[in-house]
Specification:
The chain is α+β, with helices and mostly antiparallel strands. Helix content is 17%, strand content 35%. The chain contains four helices and 23 strands. Pfam families: DUF6212 (PF19717).
């Protein structure tokens, strides 16, 4: 009986030793494969073989009747399908005919049309852009199955960026489009170029290449805006000992903006209920004092659980200078009439349930004369593991 047990243990030990030996062999083979792969990349670069080549281009064209789509980028988005296979795509370029000198940012997301799965996202401050071709690179050229790539572009800031359109084309599929109709997008594509390289290989660096801010493999990214109907229901949740003689918090429907006027003491605040959707990972908006003689103010944003009391959340912030653990606080930023600011909240993980958005302002000097703080360009991004709407 003992001999049988020892025989079984012996066989198990030999089997374990065999598995360990095979695993070591597999590790060595994997290391050899990776070394060969790196050597192949080095060989391509050392011999100056063309690592990236332009395979498609739409040149910019300015029609005298164009209104410009800058405002469309600020209030919605513009989408463009790339008329090439995704296989080997290493980057693309967008043409801008004008770039504001004030603060703001352009957001470009690349995804697969068929599944809605994200590839990468670029969030680029205006200061890094040029009024010409701007090149957006991927860390490695697209591999896998050949699919259709879709660009989605939006912008945030007090002034609009001049995204160029190309010459009119015959078909709708590869025309630029938006959720809001616009006459300039009638059978017009964006002005863009597409570059390809070896699938899975890192493209050689080129001048003015803009690297992605986020890689989105395996994620479905949805860029969404605050609905006007929800914003019109903004509630005044200010915490201040002063009773103002004017309305400090209100929604400007024609500008899709919120005014939150600070008072000499306390915090002026407006809450929009349940507008932050589950899965949201980032929030951004632009703020400016909307009067040439307006005194500066401080602005901030708070994302609070939908079942909380927004006024008590503001009171907590006023009392302790910090938000409750269940909320997300952007921190205070000073804003003036001369210089708009962009405020961003980037979350470490997606929110699990709906949240309220609270817009806050406070005085930074003794005077708040004409301090009409206007917040606009609200942009939220959410992610999920399920496919998004993939229609064009």
């Amino acid at each position: 009986m003992r001999k049988g047990r020892e025989g079984g243990v012996g066989r198990l030990a030999r089997y374990s030793a065999s598995i360990t030996s095979e695993l070591a062999i597999l590790r060595r083979e994997r290391e050899t494969l990776l070394e060969s792969y790196r050597a192949l990349e080095d060989a391509f670069q050392a011999r100056n073989w063309e690592p990236v080549s332009e395979i498609f281009s739409h040149d910019p064209y300015a029609d005298p009747k164009d209104e410009g789509i800058g405002q469309l980028l600020a209030t919605a988005f513009v989408e463009q399908l790339l008329p090439v296979s995704s296989l080997g795509v290493a980057g693309f370029a967008l043409h801008l005919h004008s770039v504001p000198k004030v603060s703001g940012e352009l957001t470009v997301a690349l995804s697969y049309l068929e599944s809605g799965e994200g590839v990468a996202e670029w969030v680029v401050p205006y200061a890094q852009l040029v009024a010409n071709w701007n090149f957006f690179s991927l860390p490695r050229a697209c591999g896998g199955a050949a699919r259709t790539l879709r660009l989605r572009i939006s912008a945030a800031g007090p002034e609009t960026v001049g995204l160029s359109l190309g010459y009119p084309i015959a078909g709708e599929r590869y025309s630029a489009r938006s959720e809001i109709p616009h006459p300039d997008l009638d059978l017009r594509p964006l002005a863009f170029r597409v570059f390809t390289g070896l699938p899975g290989v890192k493209p050689v660096s080129a001048p003015n290449m803009i690297a992605p801010s986020n890689l989105l493999e395996g994620q479905y990214i949805v860029d969404y805006r605050l609905a006007a109907e929800a914003m019109s229901q903004i509630a005044d949740v200010s915490v201040t000992p002063i009773v103002p003689e004017f309305q400090t918090v209100r929604f400007l429907e024609h500008e899709h903006a919120v005014v939150c006027h600070p008072l000499p003491a306390g915090i002026s605040a407006g809450a929009i209920s349940r507008v932050v959707e589950p899965g949201t990972i980032s929030f951004s908006a632009s703020a400016v004092i909307d009067h040439p003689e307006g005194q500066p103010a401080a602005v901030s944003f708070l994302l609070a659980p939908a079942n909380s009391n927004a006024r008590s959340e503001v009171a907590e912030l006023a009392r302790k200078g910090a938000a409750k653990p269940s909320a997300f606080f952007s921190g205070w930023r000073e804003v003036s009439a001369q210089q708009a600011v962009s405020i961003n909240i980037q979350l470490e993980e997606p929110v699990r349930g709906p949240m309220d958005l609270v817009i806050l302002s406070r005085a930074v000097t003794e005077s708040v004369d004409f301090s009409w703080l206007k917040v606009s360009g609200f942009r939220l991004v959410k992610q999920s593991s399920e496919g998004a709407d993939v229609g064009h």
